[in-house]
Specification:
By secondary structure, the chain is α+β, with helices and mostly antiparallel strands. The chain contains 2 helices and 18 strands.
Length: about 220
């Protein structure tokens, strides 16, 4: 399901009377219905401002996966790079705050239109992380059980993932979700989906150019 960021989108759930012993909310059995794309979250002039800043930034670090069984992190061959903390690069702070403010409205719209009495709010969402995929870089298949969000003071579980596309002047680098569906995002768009094992995803290797994106998680 797609919607322009400037417009609300119609509910795809019907809510009936709910009591403590029944679940009378009509839910979709199709996992695809829980993916929602918001277009035009970032304007073209904002992207034109942001992309050169990302290209020049010196704060890219190799991406790592956390292994809960060993309580350790590791990287693999052809790993993407990330800016984990944009506050380290003062050039990125202002535009990143703009992105985060737009994310808030997308989360609100997504949760509101679910109309689930048991899930009608959220505690917060993470500072955005920038991702850079150069030639042959990729993201292996995974689900977003993100442990690093929580340090003891901030508590919860990741419930929603927000992925944002920043450019399309590259080849390869397709975002692939369950059932090997390629999800196409226009620059300035975001996709929101649940951060659970039912929504595995990956990014195929980039074969030309550089792919830029960002991610945030809601708890």
């Amino acid at each position: 399901m797609n919607s322009d960021f400037t417009e609300d989108f119609s509910s795809f759930f019907q809510v009936k009377t709910v009591d403590d012993c029944t679940i009378d909310t009509t839910m979709s059995n199709n996992l695809r219905d829980y993916l929602h794309i918001f277009d035009n979250v970032l304007k073209s002039e904002e992207l034109e401002h942001l992309l050169p800043l990302l290209e020049k930034s010196e704060y890219w670090k190799i991406h790592e996966y956390y292994d809960v069984m060993t309580d350790s992190s590791e990287s693999f061959d052809n790993e993407l790079s990330c800016i984990y903390d944009y506050l380290e690069d003062y050039n990125l702070v202002e535009i990143s705050k703009v992105i985060e403010s737009r994310i808030w409205f997308a989360i609100k719209s997504y949760v509101h239109n679910l109309k689930f009495p048991w899930f009608n709010n959220w505690a917060g969402y993470s500072q955005i992380r920038y991702n850079r995929y150069e030639i042959q870089n990729r993201m292996r298949v995974h689900c977003d059980h993100i442990h690093s969000l929580f340090d003891g003071e901030r508590k919860g579980i990741p419930v929603l993932t927000i992925l944002g596309a920043l450019n399309n002047n590259y080849e390869g680098g397709e975002l692939v979700m369950m059932n090997n569906e390629v999800i196409e995002l226009k620059p300035g768009s975001i996709i929101v989906f649940p951060s659970v094992f039912l929504f595995p995803h990956l990014v195929k290797p980039v074969i030309k150019g550089t792919r830029y994106s960002f991610v945030s998680w809601v708890w």
